[in-house]
Amino acid sequence: MSSIIEDIIARKVFNSRGEETIEVDVITANGFGRASAPAGKSRGKTEVVYYPQGGVDQAIKKVDDLIAPELAGLNSDFQEEIDSTLHEIDGTNNFKLIGGNTAFAISLANAEAAANSHNLLLFQFLGGNNATTLPYPLGNCISGGKHARGKAPDIQEFLALPHGAETFLEAATANAQIHSKIAETLKKKDKLFNGGKSSEGAWIASIDNETALETMAKACEEVGNELDFECGFGVDVAASSLWMEKEEKYSYESEGKKRDADEQLEYLLDLIEKYHLAYIEDPFHEEDFDGFAALTKKARKCLICGDDLFTTNNERLNQGIKIGAANSIIIKVNQIGTLTDAAETIETAQRNGYTCIVSHRSGDTCDWHIAHLTVAYRCPMIKTGVVEGARVAKLNELIRIEHFLGNRAKMAELKIL
Ligand code: PGA
Ligand code: ZN
C-alpha cells in the first residue's frame, strides 16, 4: 500500500534562536513528510521533556536504533497507532527516554507523509472536506518578561487580534501594519529604541506595562480605522515568570510593584475594562487553577487562556474544566509530544466550549504544520507572531490555504467577543 512507512531519517537542524533541534523525514512507499521541532523559553513545568540525556545527538540515535526499525512497515494512515507505538517505545509518562521533541517531529512528519501518500494537503487529510475555516491570527507586537532584556515590560507579550477582518489575508495585513506602526510610537517613547526584536519578532523597548498597552491600543485603533474593521488586542502575562513562590506575590519590576493573588485579579480586571482587552493568557501562575477560575467568572468579553496552566495536557484541562478555570487553551503539540495527544485535548476543549488557540514556540523553525492543524481541527485562532521567518512561514501557509479554498474559505467565529 502506498502509505506504508519505508524509512525514517532524523537529522540535526537549528531553530530561529540558533539552538539545535531535531528534524525528521518519514518516507512511505508513495509519499514523504518532513517536520522539525520548536522550543519554548518560558516553558510550563508540566511539559514533556524535550530531549533525552545527551540532547539532539542522542535523540537522533534513538530514532536510528529504536524507533525507525519499529515504525518501518506500519501504515502511516493510522496516526494513533504510530503515536501509541512512540509511547510504548519510550515507556515513561513524559517522553524522557526518546524526547518529546523527537516524538513531535516523527508524529507530524508521519501525518504529512500520510497526507502526501494520498495526494492531499495535510489540512484536508486530517480535517476532511468541511475543513474550510480560517483562524484569526494573534500577533505578538511588543515583547517583555523572559522574552526581553533590560527595562522592558513585565508582561511577556502584547498581541494584536484583528477580529473584525473578513479574510485571513486582511487579518494578517492588519497585524503587519499594527506591528510597524508600533515601532513609530516606540521611537518617541524610548529614546534608546533602535529596532531591537525578540525571537518572535516583537519589538523590545524600555517601557512599562501601561505604556505598552497604550501603544497597542493606539496602533490597533488607527489601523482598524484605516482598514475599516475592528482590531482588538490582548496579552500573555506568563505569570509563572513573575511569581515569587516564597513571598506569594507577582513581581512587576518595571513598576517596582508586587501584587498578591487578589491584587493580581483586581489589576487584570482593571486592565480588561480600561483597554477592552479581548485576550489574557496565563494571568496567574501555573498551579493557581482557582485564580484562573475567579478571573474567568468576573471577566466580561475576554478570552482567559491557559498555556503553562494546561500544557496541552488533557488531564490538566479536565482539572480546569471542573472549576471553570479559563475559557480557552493554547495548543502547543510539543508540550505533550504527539498529534494524537494534542487532538484529544482539542476535542475535550471543544466539547466543553473552550476556544482552542494553536501556537508556535518562541524558538521555532520554518515548519508550517501548525497552520494546517488550525484549519483541520477547526481552531478559531492561531498565535504565531507577525514578522521573522519562522512566524511568516505559518502565516504565508494560511494565506495559501485560504487561496486554495477560494470561495469555500470563511473566517472562524469568535464566540466570546
Ligand atoms: P515559549 O513561550 O517561550 O515557551 O514558547 C511562549 C508563550 O508563553 O506563549
Ligand atoms: Zn504563553
Plain-language structure description:
With 417 residues, this protein is of the alpha/beta class. It has two domains: 5-120, Enolase-like, domain 1; 133-411, TIM Barrel (Alpha-Beta Barrel), CATH 3.20.20. It has 13 helices and 16 strands. It has an eight-stranded mixed β-barrel, surrounded by five helices. The protein has a three-stranded antiparallel sheet with strand order 1-2-3. The radius of gyration is 21 Å and the shape is globular. The mean pLDDT is 97. Bound molecules: 2-phosphoglycolic acid and zinc ion. Zinc ion binds at residues 236, 238, 281-282, 307.
Question: Total helix count?
Answer: 13
Strand content: 15-25%
Shape: globular
Small ligands present: 2-phosphoglycolic acid, zinc ion
Count of extended strands: 16
Give the termini separation.
Answer: 47 Å
The largest pleated sheet is described as:
8 strands, mixed, barrel
Strand order of the largest sheet: 5-6-7-11-12-13-14-15
Number of domains: 2
